[in-house]
Records
---
Amino acid sequence: MAFSFNIMRYKKKHLVENSLKNIVKTSIIVFIGILISKLFAYVYRIIIARNFGPEVYGRFSLALIILGWFGVFASLGFHEGVLRYISIFRSRDDKDRLKYLYHISLSFIFFLSLLSGIILFIFSEYISVNIFHDTNLVIFLRIFSIGVPFFALSNILLAVIQGFEKIKEYTFIFDITPSIIKIFMLLLFIYLGFNSNSIIISYILGLLLIYLLSYYYCKKYLIKHSSYDLDKQSKSKIKKDLFSYSWPLVFLGLLDAIFFYIDSLTIGYFKGTLEVGLYTSAVSIAMLLGFFPTIFMRLFLPIVTKEYAKKNLSLVKELSKQVEKWVFIINLPVFALMFLFPGAFINLLFGSEYISAEIPLRILSISFFIYSLSVIFYNLLSMAGKSKTILFNTVITAVINLTLNIIIVPIYGMSGAAFTTLFSQIILFFLLFFQVKKYTSIIPLRKKMIGIALCSIFPALFIFYLRRFIEINLFSLIMLASFFMLIYLLLIFISRSLDNNDLMIISSIKNKFLHQI
């Protein structure tokens, strides 16, 4: 009996180690891809911000938000449903259902996205003039309407690639290649004298490239033959399950976009595109805190969904706690530096024209740090099929955010908008925490995270004191950040805040690195 128990414990440990190694191995690839993508995305935005000024940058930001809304509606939440059911069908090796899912989702979204693009084109003037009082926004929306089908269809195709756990290919298609092309085309069009149209055309070409690459990869390597052998009842069940799971995610996607961009929309309505541009610079920097959750989540969701379908809850629990801890360890020093030196980040990336967004950035850094810890809760609820619960959460917090924005933004402007986002994010975090505990019996937090938080206090206080005597520029910021990281990591090791899984992963990375050199 004891021998059998030891065998089971060994198998569980082996599964956890292999899954964590896969996540980390994939995350290194994703890290490189997203690092390049983020770098080029910031270069792309900085070129726009510095060449065209805050007003055009604000116009571009509003157009992106509206494109996102129409794209989310056109996707019908299917990309989330496709990702979930591909993971489930792969766990059962059910190729016929998988192929039918691919076929039906692409066919439906093609027609819906075409209709959505036409609607955006028709109403672009009304949206620009009557809501945002900016006639120059019309051309942005009209050309962006062409990108709605590419946006929606790419979402489905990328979900297929992610569901097959082809994360390296996903990263190349979604993160790296389009980012490089967008910058190249933007600079070329600026050189040719296209003015602000350079922004619109270069962005649409980036969307088109994502669609073409993802479609080619799916047809060439994943769904080589689209034929399937299913009876009418099986097809009907797949459609019913897909629609049942996905339809709340339409509203979720729209509300999610509202939740993150309602600040810019209300600022645009009450204050104008200039202040939208200033505020968006702060949002763009704060979103850096979403970088590391993204690199882990690319493979985390397909793995836990597959294991959850196999009733392997103990493995899901262990993976969740470990990945959440890694996000916390990595994001904590990034948050601390952003909170302490918001002006330096803004000045270095966007220039002195945007420095008035310093206070909003400080507030938003707290909000996005909390959000980075919430991402795993979203994934666990999605794994459990609780799309309606996720929708409920987003409705509640979006209504709170919108109501507070309408009251506060006309008085306090950007700082008021940042505060309402923080308040809403805190509420959302606790909603997600208790729901994950209720539906999955998982609390994806480790006690050692408290010790890790304490390890960040001393270096944070020390560099906060040093800032009085040092002129903050690129060199001094790098030096202060390096000092912070050195002391922070040293204290983590001294306090023994790392567990066996952490040490196993560090050892694995070290051995792989030494083997390569």
Note: Residues 2-75 form the longest helix (74 residues).
---
Amino acid sequence: MEENKNDLNEQENSTVKVIEKEEINIKTLENAKEEKQTTSNDNKKSKLKIVLITLVMILVLIAILSTIFAAINLGNSNIIKGIKIAQIDVSKMSEEEAKKTLEEIYLQKDENEIYFTYEEFETSATYKTLEVEYQIEKAIKQAHEIGRSGNLLKDNFDILKAWIKGTNIDLEVAVDVDMMNQVIQNINNSIEGRLIQPSYYREEDKLIITSGKEGLKVEEKQIIEEIYRVVKEENREQNIIIPLITATPDEISIEKIHKEVYKKVQDAYYTKEPFTIYPESEGIDFDIENAKLLITEEKEQYEIPLTITKPNKTTKEIGTEAFPDLLATFSTKYQASNTSRTTNLKLAANKINGTVLLPGEEFSYNKTVGERTVAAGFKMAATFSAGKVVDGLGGGICQISSTLYDAVIMANLDVTVRRNHQFVTSYVPAGKDATVVWGSQDFKFKNTRKHPIRITATVQGGVATVQIWGIKEEVEYDITIETKKVSTIAYTTEYVQDPSLPAGQQKVVQSGSNGRKVEAYKVTKLNGKVVSTTLLSKDTYNAMKQIIHVGTGQ
């Protein structure tokens, strides 16, 4: 029994020791955890201190660098290191040095030439002709401002970026809109199969309306984009295939035509105080509904009967006072032996001869002369087409429109529509001509004087003359057109193989002539002194290609 008790006591003691041991182990683990947690917190605090110290050091470094960069830039007026304009390095250059560097490169591009082609048609224009202008000063200003905005952090960032990676500034380019439009219009006037718009003219007691013709015209937005693309590239010569679209002519508006044609009959009369002449006006009218019915037929030309009411009294019947003063006169020479061309000149001159314009009234050359047709008596004669001199119906009538143009300017009238020829003409200097093309290019002007005017036109003895008569105003100016040649466009030579000529023999089929760019000015004088000089136009004339046939025959 005692032994059993002893055994039980020993077991109890042993159990107590185990429990005590486990309690000690648990306490030890808890202490270890507490120590570990304390160590972890200490580590976190240490890391946070390191981060804060690092941030402070970075900020201090940035401040130091900013101060250094600011100090460096403070006394530096040159473009900073790492800056390029259009990939041209302008680092550390002054603004003047950068300008000189860029101008040496880009001013050489003036004579770069763009060729516009479509099948057999070709025309060209130099960068100078198009007034291509590289925005050099703007780019240099942008380059110089890098690192100088006034924001210290931004400036230093931009400086570091330029130093490390480099910074390139695009060079913007501008092209004169009027010059591009001139190129486009010349193409539209010259391209084979071109679009022809509806028009009309009077022929005695009939109104002739032409319906126009579907054809090609330049896709303006695309060709302008192509021009900009070319001038930004480095190649000296570029070719643009003319983007053309097939376009339908505008619809004929009978109401619009009636509004322009309709006139009330008016007898000529004059007043003495103040002395003013009011010339006669024929009454012109037509049946609108009948005209609308006639144009429903698909025809190239329509004849609309006009109702003409003659005035009872004309200016001739009220005396010669109607147009007593010669306001302007201009003459050009022609070759009388060229009978076909002379016929065309006389027909055009006769059409405009005697035309009276009231104050505010506009004159249209195409509507006055009418379509150039065989039925109207026009002949085939030399004219410009597709970059060459060819025979065309009505060739030569632009000499009359050009002669009229000069007289109009000298009479101090306002020109509303006018464009120069594709090539320099033989009868007037460059800048003093006015081309016309049926269905696409007109010449128009308005009587902006206080009194009516009367146009007379004669073609005889090798001289075409246009005179403008009216009443002189209180102050009359002497007006001339003065032209200034801006640049010359050298002609090129095209060699064409010709089996009809013996091998090696050459024949000049078309003589070449230089083109040019000119500016025309209206010079107004009073009592011999210049009162004003006004720009009339900027005109570009293409070079006339020399064509030589080279024999390949036996």
Note: The first strand starts at residue 83 and ends at 85.
